[in-house]
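Question (not urgent): is this output format expected?
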Amino acid sequence: MNIYLFIYYLIQFCGHSWIFTNMIIRFLSFGKDSLADTFYSIGLVMRLCQSLSILELLHILVGIEENRFLPRFLQITERIIILFVVITSQEEVQGKYIVCVLFFLWNLLDVVRYTYCMLSVSGTYYEALTWLNYTLWIPVYPLSILAKAFAIYESLPYFESFGTYSIKLPFPVALSIYFPYILKMYLAMLFAGKIFMSCEQALNAIVLEFTILRRQKSNQ
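Got this back:
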């Protein structure tokens, strides 16, 4: 199973590293002009990586990956909804600068996380990388939540004008589902999930700090 996990983490690391490097090179080469077509240049690889991340829920359920199921489920679900439902379905949203910002934050976290996971499966540990993996989220994760919320806000006028995903069931049900209302409710759920995830990750960071201090005392 360690070989399988190593290959999985390696694939994810390569995918997110390619996205991250591509974004930086394009920005250095074309400046602000590169931001508008970020989705068109890396969107396919981004969708593949996020779709593949669903396997991580299966890893947790079968016990080959040590992680809490609910926080990981919330994180993966948030990304799938934002990427496939909000961004991919609305071409007008794909050219927004916020998409570039969101992708940058996601991949910054994922490059570090998959590097750490890949090395830990092979039995290699670096304290600096471990510290970075458990603390980088403190400034980046709240920013990604704000970026998600802003992406949803930017998409609302297009969902309202085009009626995407809004349906009206025929008689005798006579029920209308107005998708912008669902997105607005999801915004509230997004911030509630952010509070839960922050508490969970803060606990992990505290445990890590105690572990590092214990190792340092034992080595003295």
